[in-house]
Amino acid sequence: MRKPTVYLAGPIAGLTEGEAKDWRCRVTEALHAHGITGISPLRCEPSIKGRYDIPDGNQSADKCFGTAQAIGSKNEFDARSCDMILAYFPVTSDRAVPSVGTIIEIGWGKALNIPVVVVTKDPYLSKHPLIRHCSSWSLDSIDDAIDLFVGILGDYAK
């Protein structure tokens, strides 16, 4: 029997490695303690000079993991293969547009009947009719999401 899995959707484009990875590592470690595997969309994905910028077709020589098609295909495969999806939208003063990739991943979850947990304190996103329609839970903290995943998936990990 395989371990239950949670896909960790959230901002990547335009972020440093730390900004994109730190919260995912924290969630992965917390879930792992309960036998649940966190799947990061950044696995295999190369950063360029410590950043994750949107590929322009020439950005990465890595044809396996660095092209737009490779990134999208891997992320869709991962989202489709997981038991639940965490869609994290941190509130930041310098990010006017929410993560487009995360919004698409929420749509994949809804279309594939995979429960989606949206985590945000952004009042626009938490009240948006399509985000609300496509999410199974809407929470305002990562810690609440971890508790939810442990509660829902923990017995499957035993």
Describe this structure in words.
The chain is of the alpha/beta class and 158 residues long. The chain has one domain: 3-Layer(aba) Sandwich (Rossmann fold). It is built from six helices and seven strands, in the order ββαββαβαβααβα. The protein has a five-stranded parallel beta sheet with strand order 3-1-5-6-7, sandwiched between helices. Strands 2-4 form a two-stranded antiparallel sheet. It starts with a strand and ends in a 5-residue tail after the last helix. The mean pLDDT is 90.
Write the layout of secondary structure elements.
Blueprint: E1 5-9, E2 15-16, H1 17-32, E3 37-39, E4 51-52, H2 68-81, E5 84-89, H3 100-111, E6 116-120, H4 123-127, H5 129-134, E7 137-139, H6 142-153
Parallel strand pairs: 1-3, 1-5, 5-6, 6-7
Antiparallel strand pairs: 2-4
Overall spatial form = globular
Radius of gyration over all CA atoms, rounded: 15 Å
Approximate helicity band: 40-55%
The helix count comes to: 6
CATH class: Alpha Beta
Major pleated sheet: 5 strands, parallel
The SSE string, one letter per element, is: EEHEEHEHEHHEH
Assign the CATH architecture: 3-Layer(aba) Sandwich
**Alpha-carbon distance between the termini?**
10 Å
Please report the total strand number as a whole number: 7
Number of spatially distinct domains: 1
Mean pLDDT: 90
Structural class: alpha/beta
**If you consult CATH, what is the topology?**
Rossmann fold
* Uncertain parts: none
Sequence of strands across the biggest β-sheet: 3-1-5-6-7
How large is the share of residues in beta strands? 15-25%
